[in-house]
């Protein structure tokens, strides 16, 4: 089973430029109600981020500018992909370890989350993560 699940967003536009609308609902692209939106930008060269999992949070990561490399790990499988297209969203399920590497200078990574911020939902130690997913 692949950890990599993409959502393709429709790009609309004309000679003035392009637009991507992100919608939720039964027939829409995002598979959960969005309760939080944030974005990561100006990440210094050589800096990696993430290194955590969530117990009960789903996310969609969209690189709206530039690119970065995402590593996903469910404790049994480890996959990596490049986020480099503003019309593709990477679905990240709960109990999946994530790491973000190799941010381009112009990278803006938009994240849509299924829940509000809750520090108690984070698993920040990889060994603890492995214990939880093996139960």
TrEMBL record:
Residues 4-133 form the Sugar 3,4-ketoisomerase QdtA cupin domain. Pfam families: FdtA. This is Sugar 3,4-ketoisomerase QdtA cupin domain-containing protein. It comes from Marinobacter excellens LAMA 842.
